[in-house]
User: What shape does this take?
Amino acid sequence: MVNLNDIDSINVFKNAAAASKMYEESNPNGVVEVVLINKANLINYEQLLKKFNIPNSESKLPVYIDSAIAFQPQKTYFELSAIKTVTTDIEKNTGMIYISILTIFPVKQSKKDGGTIIGRVADIK
Assistant: This one.
């Protein structure tokens, strides 16, 4: 999660061959590379939890970023200025405890495709 003003460029490598030219690992689906300007202040997941006083013992809980599940939050970097809150919460119906990360770029329901949840960071015109 980064602030849009801190993005210098975005590069898309659409397949494994293109991605392997830039990255040593095999990436069968390609890679999206986001190049940030120098002032961007990124922190990792562990640092984010510490900053918001979430105990390390809770770091393995499921993580939702603006209501969307994060499958590998430990591999995610965050820009602190893009984060509103980080809290633990309890799902009302199941009692499941999870970590909720709310950002300044909330997930919105798409009106065009019948309700699919889509992450939205900017209106592209």
